[in-house]
Amino acid sequence: MAEKRTLARPYAQAVFRLARERDELDCWGEWLRCFAAIAADAQMRLVLDNPRVEDDQLRAIFLDVTQAVTGTAPGERAAALLDTLIENRRLAILPEICALYESYRAEAEKVVQAEVIAAQPVSDAQRQAIADALAARLGCEVELTSRTDPALIGGAVVRAGDLVIDGSAKGHLERLTQALCQ
After folding, report:
1. Average pLDDT per run of 10 along the chain, which is 182 residues long?
2. H or E segment at 166?
3. Total domains, the chain
4. What is the spatial distance between Cα 177 and Cα 171, in angstroms, rounded to a whole number?
5. 89 and 72 co-located in one domain
6. SS3 assignment for 89-142
7. What's the pTM?
8. Which range of residues forms the domain containing residue 125?
9. Which pLDDT does position 2 carry in this prediction?
10. Which residues make beta-bridge pairs with 157?
């Protein structure tokens, strides 16, 4: 949702600046991923939406679960972020804050997350060739994941940020259909 993303942007920017200044990009990334998972959990949503749950109880839940999962107690600044989000009733945008933070981090580290979706499993050699070609095209390091989707019929689709390269048989057939129908 664009509205949630708009609300999340200032928080993500502030957290990213703080994390970079203090050389805590990894810690903050881990804490935010955990906070986002807690906020996105269906059962937790019931707790978040319950007006009888006190603010300090919400804070304790997030901090305790994060410490249990990550093995690291979130610092006072992470607790202050939670306090601000709780006070402003913005805990629901934690997944968007986390996603934006990760994109700022990847941009700063000159790393692009990419995905190849293929009709057949992609070998390690093919994955490395695709990653190398994307790195040359984008001028940065590429972290490539892959998955299969038999609905593509053949070929593959590569997604890296806003860049989408559709070399699938399904994509070719759809473009051919559109060209013939015009």
Report:
1. 83 95 92 95 91 93 92 90 94 94 86 88 92 87 90 88 83 85 84
2. strand 163-166
3. 2
4. 10
5. yes
6. CCHHHHHHHHHHHHHHHHHHCCEEEEEEEECCCCCHHHHHHHHHHHHHHHCCEE
7. 0.67
8. 110-181
9. 54
10. 117, 166
